[in-house]
Amino acid sequence: MGVVNVTPDSFSDGGVNADPDVAAAAARRMLADGAAIVDVGGESTRPGSEGVSADEELRRVVPVLERLAGEVPVSIDTAKAEVARRALELGAELVNDVTALRADPTLAEVVAESGAYLCLMHMQGEPRTMQLDPRYDDVASEVASFLEERLAFAVAQGIAEERICLDPGIGFGKTAEHNFELVRRLEVLLALGRPVLIGFSRKSSLGRLLGDADAKTGPLAASVGAAVAAYERGATILRVHDVREHVEALTVAAAVAGR
Ligand code: HH2
Question: Taking each helix axis from N to C terminus, what angle separates 220-232 and 176-184, rounded to the nearest 10 degrees?
């Protein structure tokens, strides 16, 4: 899954896709480089971020989705029903909700009616404050319990279970060690029986592990290392900014694994 953020303030690619032609070209390049789907987002969820209105989110993403319609498989990274509805009308196939259907009470209905795929992600707290003091007794079990409950909720709302993937939410209310433990113990999430998505790409835990205590991002090679580690433990969707490099590395990892 390639990432195209159409925001001024995303933590690693904020501002680069302000022009919808540039954003659409980036998405097409990701597809050519081997992405199966491109995740388009109009709201940053980086630590400390405040959120934007549905109108502003639509203003950012609709011109990009119009340019991609029918050409590039698209995932819409939104927690808002209004944005998801418009994106699905414009051909999006997957709704990627970092709040796991907790923010907008009408989003579940939009997903259920459209028959779209859905990603449910774990987050402790909310973006504005989530990195202040994240705590767990057992991070893997607590994230799995949360995702199990949200999966049951989504199914009860009429969303087909086989259309849902789960994501532990790397960096969303977690320390670096929490993030690494979640990948190390991925089998705890896989036991829920759904595909697991991991988004470690460029995240600050990688830069911190490499010695920069104040890192806001992580370098490319570290991102690729995290993606391969997640893949080897059973992740099936890797959400990444640098598609070509990840596809190359994952192709080798798949060959070694005999997949
Ligand atoms: N991470 C980000 C945004 N959306 N969605 C899922 N399912 N999983 C993730 O790990 C995830 C996500 C944050 O990364 P990015 O989009 O690059 O930054 P920002 O939120 O600042 O736009």
Answer: 40
Pair of tokens at residue 98: 């970092």
Q: For residue 258, how far is its CA from the centre of ligand 1 (angstroms)?
A: 30
Exposure string over 141-173, b if 16+ CB within 10 A, otherwise e: ebbbebbbebbeebeeeebeeebbbbbbbbbbb
The answer to whether 79 and 99 are in contact (CB under 8 A) is yes
Ligand 1 centroid to Cα of residue 45, in Å, is: 6
Among candidates 195, 165, 166, 198, which has minimal Cα distance to 184?
198
**Contact 11 CB / ligand 1 (< 6 Å):** yes
Q: Is the CB of 60 under 6 A from ligand 1?
A: no
User: Which numbered atom of ligand 1 lies nearest the CA of 12?
Assistant: 17
Please report, in tens digits, the pLDDT of each residue of the chain (259 residues total). 999 999 999 999 999 999 999 999 999 999 999 999 999 999 999 988 989 999 999 999 999 999 999 899 999 999 999 999 999 999 999 999 999 999 999 999 999 999 999 999 999 999 998 898 999 999 999 999 999 999 999 999 999 999 999 999 999 999 999 999 999 999 999 999 999 999 999 999 999 999 999 999 999 999 999 999 999 999 999 999 999 999 999 999 999 999 9
Give the span between the Cα atoms of 58 and 108, in whole angstroms: 19
- 46 CB under 6 A from ligand 1? yes
Whether 46 sits among the annotated catalytic residues: the reply is no
Answer yes or no: 216 catalytic: no
Binding site membership of 10 for ligand 1 (Cβ less than 6 Å): yes
| Residue nearest (by alpha carbon) to ligand 1 atom 21 | 10
Structure tokens at 251: 């192709």
